[in-house]
Amino acid sequence: MLSIDTVGHYCGIALSNAQDGTLIMKHVLKESNMHDAMLAEMIRIALIDHAIAPSDISAIAVSAGPGSFTGLRIGMSFAKGWCADGKTSLISVPTFDAMIHALKNKIHNLRHQTLCMAKLSHGDQWFVQTFNAKSGGKKNDISIVSSSTLDMYIDDDTIVIGDYKLEQQDVIYAEFNNSDPEFIAQLGYIMLQRGEAISPITADSAYHAAFIPTIQGNRS
């Protein structure tokens, strides 16, 4: 299984065994906004390095957002194109779910009641979703809120994961503040086993916000 994560500044991929979920490799390119230029090349090199033919990829798990509009579009478009012939299963993995799943797999017996995912969208707007810290279940859908509203989500029983007020966060949660292709692979494998593949024809990223272009300078 190939996993693709393009929701943030960095482009990441992972290869794992589709039969048991074992991670074979992962690579995150630590250069900002190189998704369009490097995604296909990263995958090509990974397949060669591990002697895997493209036809051996039985499923693609792609991070579905929320996140960068452009990054999401690039990752999902690549996955849809690969899966268009119907021979490869497409798994659309909710990014926050994958991050929470990875956290709960590693950190047990959380003393808080709520996990609050908070990732910056733009300006003072934040993607926010809360989860039950014990079960990992969603408490609500993803919202886009201001920092003043976000503060209302946070109390002494809440752990904030993501970008918000990192100076107040316990260091043990730091590795879960950003999405990772290994997180996408872990939840993607579970979704594949549950038969949650979707059609590449109708698949789309979970943008949650309209695209707002940045215009620099004046045009005559």
What can you tell me about this protein's structure?
With 220 residues, this protein is of the alpha/beta class. It has two domains: 2-95 and 179-193, ATPase, nucleotide binding domain (Nucleotidyltransferase, domain 5, 2-Layer Sandwich), CATH 3.30.420; 96-176, Nucleotidyltransferase, domain 5. The protein has helices spanning 35-49, 69-83, 95-106, 147-150, 181-193; strands spanning 2-5, 11-16, 23-29, 59-63, 89-93, 114-122, 125-132, 143-146, 158-162. Mean pLDDT is 92; it is low at 211-220.
Low-confidence stretches: 211-220
- Order of SSEs, N→C? EEEHEHEHEEEHEH
**Helix share, percent:** 25-40%
Strand order of the largest sheet: 3-2-1-4-5
Structural class: alpha/beta
CATH hierarchy: architecture of the largest domain: 2-Layer Sandwich
The name CATH uses for the topology of the largest domain is: Nucleotidyltransferase, domain 5
What fraction of the residues are assigned to beta strands by DSSP?
Answer: 15-25%
Name the assembly state: single chain
Distance between the termini: 49 Å
Overall geometry comes to globular
Largest sheet: 5 strands, mixed
Number of self-contained structural domains = 2
- CATH C-level of the largest domain: Alpha Beta
Number of DSSP strand runs: 9
SS field, number of helical segments: 5
